[in-house]
Amino acid sequence: MAKALSEVMAKLEAEGNLHARNTYGRHGATGPMFGVRTSKLSRMARDYGPDQELADALWATGNVDARLLAAKVADHEAITAARLEAWVEDCDWYMLVDGFVADCAARTRHVRALAEQWRGSEAEYRGRAGWSLVAHLARQGEVGGALFETCLDEIAAGIHAAANRKREAMNAALIAIGGHRAGLRERAVAVAEAVGAVEVDHGETGMVTPDARAYLEQMARYANRRSGDGGAAR
């Protein structure tokens, strides 16, 4: 493993560039990093994963690029809930949370339990991970609507008091629930109207926070057009 880790770290260093480092920095990354573009990380993941032992070693380096790659090469069948708990505690910027969730946590058998456990956390990034998993589940068909009804209640009651990047993920979950759960769309729109504008500090970036009501109305129009074109039958 030592040889494999050194090989991967050397490749990460070779693939790094100043522009990507500056971009990651503007988005909140701190600590050691080479600045490897996500497209290159994805190509590396195809070469080296799945390999949980390598993923653990990469994560342990604390290097930004290595941790992003660790989430991509993790073995979704082998990784334990305890390991996922340890990793989410280490997440210290929102893009790492998002990579960890999309590339790893959301693909494991632990996804529902982690969404339940993490979304109530007052910790900014753990809470973000939980709500990002809620959004992932809302886009799937396996989970019943009761979870999302509870989540809508929690969003209505607590979104404005939540930590910055957790608040952003709650807004995204609201959009995912209303956009992908037809039976809850009307209620999600009502929640969006009630909470109004959601303010998120995006730092030194050009990113903006979607208006949930407008976004949901746009998604509904698109769904209606697809249904009219026969898209719903496909």
- Looking at how many chains there are and whether they match, the oligomeric state comes to single chain
Distance between the termini: 47 Å
Mean pLDDT: 93
- Class from secondary-structure proportions: mainly alpha
Helicity range:
55-70%
Can you tell me the overall shape?
globular
Count of separate DSSP helical elements = 13
Taking pLDDT < 50 over at least 5 consecutive residues as the criterion, the unreliable ranges are none
What can you see in these coordinates?
The mean pLDDT is 93. 66% of the residues lie in helices and 0% in strands. The chain folds into two domains: 1-78, no CATH class; 91-234, no CATH class. It has helices spanning 2-15, 18-26, 38-48, 52-60, 64-73, 81-90, 94-103, 111-118, 124-138, 145-158, 164-180, 185-195, 212-228. It has 13 helices and no strands. The chain is mostly helical and 234 residues long. This is DNA alkylation repair enzyme. It comes from Plesiocystis pacifica SIR-1. InterPro entries: ARM-type_fold, DNA_alkylation.
Summarize the structure in short.
With 234 residues, the protein is mainly alpha-helical.
SSE arrangement:
Layout: H1 2-15, H2 18-26, H3 38-48, H4 52-60, H5 64-73, H6 81-90, H7 94-103, H8 111-118, H9 124-138, H10 145-158, H11 164-180, H12 185-195, H13 212-228
Protein name: DNA alkylation repair enzyme
Q: Any descriptors?
A:
234 residues, mainly alpha
